Amino acid sequence: MDAALDAALRGPRGANPLVGAVLTDETGRILHTGRHMGSGTPHAEVDLIAAAQSAGTDLRGTTLYVTLEPCHHTGRTGPCSQAILEAGIRSVVCATADTTETAAGGARFLAANGVDVRSGLRADRARRMNARWWACQEEGRPFVTAKIAATQDGVVAAEDGTSQWITGPEARAHGHRLRARADTIMVGTGTALTDNPRLTARGPDGAALPEQPRRAVMGLRRLPAGAALDDGEEALRLPTRSPREALDRLAREYSRHVLIEGGPGIVSAFLAEGLVDELYWYTAPKLLGCGRRAIAQLGATTLSDALPLTVDPAGAEADATTHGIGLLGQDTLTHLATEPAPATERK
Fold this sequence. Notes:
GO terms for molecular function: 5-amino-6-(5-phosphoribosylamino)uracil reductase activity; diaminohydroxyphosphoribosylaminopyrimidine deaminase activity; zinc ion binding. Its EC number is 3.5.4.26, 1.1.1.193. This protein has 347 residues and is α/β, with parallel strands linked by helices. It folds into 2 domains: 1-136, Cytidine Deaminase, domain 2 (3-Layer(aba) Sandwich); 140-338, Dihydrofolate Reductase, subunit A (3-Layer(aba) Sandwich), CATH 3.40.430.10. It has helices at 2-8, 44-55, 80-87, 106-112, 123-129, 131-139, 169-181, 189-195, 243-252, 264-272, 316-319; strands at residues 20-24, 30-35, 63-66, 91-94, 116-119, 143-151, 155-157, 184-188, 214-218, 236-238, 257-262, 278-284, 292-293, 309-311, 325-328, 331-338. Strands 6, 8, 9, 10, 11, 12, 14, 15 and 16 form a 9-stranded mixed sheet that branches. It is elongated, with a radius of gyration of 21 Å. The mean pLDDT is 91.
């Protein structure tokens, strides 16, 4: 199960939980490993089964270890429970149950069809790994990713307002990969008015990808006629300054993964309310000394009030980081995670 948990961390966070799986023979030797690589891609169990079948592995007598109970519903992919049964695997060990309304029931289905199912191995580690995702499910809101591109001294725009480009092409390309993972990209009206962004996800050649995330603008100010976000498919307007109200609206619009691109005001507002689940921070090898700071007021007046962050090892395969830190050209990428508030404090 530890190997399955390690495999899970190679996938990116987002609308779906991190899930890893390994297949062992009767002696406990690992034969194959699978992982989920994001929304719309094969689930970890299906990824593993495909590798085993491609290699011609005899699945009789094997045991599947998976970090989350196999799903039992059809979404963008089919039910993993059915895939496991059809593959002929007859022993499954889950770290923790899937208690979400849509996906639960896989263990019960497998057991009813003659599969030996056990649960609870490394359950604490499995729950901790997806703590922020579970918090989103409990709160009924989208998973929130934020990204910041700043100088070494934490400045996102010079004193005269110039900000393009603080980071290099490799960091910007990675930012477009983040856009492609999300189903919604959101900015505040300040960024929309100052930068006039298109908020499209583009490939390495600069061309727009075939599937584009929804674009959203949060705030009370109006956008001028001819704005880039009013290009025939107008961005969703969120006329509020409340992060929770914005997420409630996006949840009603079926958003499950929101990427906040700025500016500092909107990112800081979400951070202050504990609503940023992961943070990508791109640091350029530059100093400005003055200008617009990356983070605005968080309400911390003493060191003990500081918002604690941890370097997040998740997404290593997708982000080319080692334990959450990597280089993108001359820029440094740090992938950070926040701890969810205790359940009793969540709204």
